From TrEMBL:
<dbReference type="GO" id="GO:0005737">
    <property type="term" value="C:cytoplasm"/>
</dbReference>
<dbReference type="InterPro" id="IPR028094">
    <property type="entry name" value="RTC4_C"/>
</dbReference>
<dbReference type="GO" id="GO:0005634">
    <property type="term" value="C:nucleus"/>
</dbReference>
<feature type="region of interest" description="Disordered">
    <location>
        <begin position="242"/>
        <end position="267"/>
    </location>
</feature>
<keyword id="KW-0963">Cytoplasm</keyword>
<keyword id="KW-0539">Nucleus</keyword>
<comment type="similarity">
    <text>Belongs to the RTC4 family.</text>
</comment>
<dbReference type="InterPro" id="IPR039024">
    <property type="entry name" value="RTC4"/>
</dbReference>
<protein>
    <recommendedName>
        <fullName>Restriction of telomere capping protein 4</fullName>
    </recommendedName>
</protein>
<comment type="function">
    <text>May be involved in a process influencing telomere capping.</text>
</comment>
<feature type="domain" description="Restriction of telomere capping protein 4 C-terminal">
    <location>
        <begin position="121"/>
        <end position="240"/>
    </location>
</feature>
<feature type="compositionally biased region" description="Basic and acidic residues">
    <location>
        <begin position="255"/>
        <end position="267"/>
    </location>
</feature>
<dbReference type="Pfam" id="PF14474">
    <property type="entry name" value="RTC4"/>
</dbReference>
């Protein structure tokens, strides 16, 4: 079935331009070619433009700069611009919220200052994220890191992004690899979901809260709020810095004594 597309662009009552509504059926092989019928000039004359894909209001100069000289906006270019404006917005939010410039070269020494607290938690001391993780385990949730990701339960430590997750996880595992193996046998919570899940669900966020408190000069409760609210910003701002992060975060070898879902950190 061909794509039905109005020839003109209407305006909302508030004055914001509305992109043509695209009526497509699943499996329509002509959809992408139909999208290409929208010339880039179509989007440049808006007083209050919106993203041609997600329809969120966008900066007119950013849209004009992106579309200038690129001819028709096919679906792939729409996707490219959608990602571009979200990243641009993330940088603006970062500035407005006064998030810090992260000095990655000094992260190891900063993390090391909090090993004492992390070791106490690892040895059984109760903690905010430990209690939350325990409740999820009791409810039958978070069986593996993979299922947590599928359930949209982000492991990203706020504005530190995926690079921060990789850096913190790597430091913790290198420091406590022997203790993690030892505690995986003794601690039912660690044994229930494996060392990797415990590190990324409990130790990393506990560490990240301490770092945010230092960065922003706030108390624990506010640091936890900042950590949660800044996840998407961190993932976008540090996007270009996360090459290879997925490989670094991949679980290590699995112990023969454990199920396939339970990961034990190996040296």
């Amino acid at each position: 079935m061909p794509v039905s597309m109005p020839s003109s662009i209407s305006a909302q009552a508030g004055g914001s331009a509305v992109l043509p509504e695209l009526h497509m059926e699943t499996g329509d092989h002509d959809s992408e070619s139909a999208l290409s019928e929208l010339d880039s000039s179509t989007f440049e004359d808006f007083e209050d433009p919106v993203c041609p894909l997600c329809r969120i209001p966008v900066d007119r100069d950013l849209l004009k700069s992106f579309t200038r000289g690129k001819g028709r906006l096919d679906f792939h270019r729409r996707q490219e611009f959608c990602h571009l404006h979200k990243k641009d917005s993330a940088h603006k939010i970062w500035k407005d919220k006064h998030y810090p410039v992260i000095k990655w070269e000094s992260m190891e020494s900063r993390i090391g200052q909090h090993f004492g607290k992390l070791e106490r938690i690892l040895r059984g001391q109760r903690s905010f994220y430990g209690d939350a993780f325990s409740e999820k385990v009791k409810a039958g949730q978070n069986k593996t890191v993979k299922t947590m990701v599928k359930a949209n339960q982000s492991l990203t430590p706020g504005y530190y992004g995926l690079k921060g997750l990789a850096t913190m996880s790597d430091s913790i595992i290198r420091k406590f690899s022997s203790l993690l193996r030892e505690r995986a046998v003794q601690d039912k919570l660690i044994a229930a979901r494996g060392s990797t899940a415990f590190v990324q669900s409990v130790l990393v966020p506990e560490l990240a809260v301490e770092l945010v408190m230092e960065d922003m000069g706030v108390k624990q409760d506010e640091a936890r709020t900042i950590l949660q609210e800044s996840i998407s910003v961190g993932e976008l701002v540090h996007e270009e810095e996360v090459q290879g992060v997925q490989e670094k975060l991949a679980p290590g070898p699995i112990s023969r004594e454990r199920s396939k879902d339970e990961v034990v950190v190996q040296d």
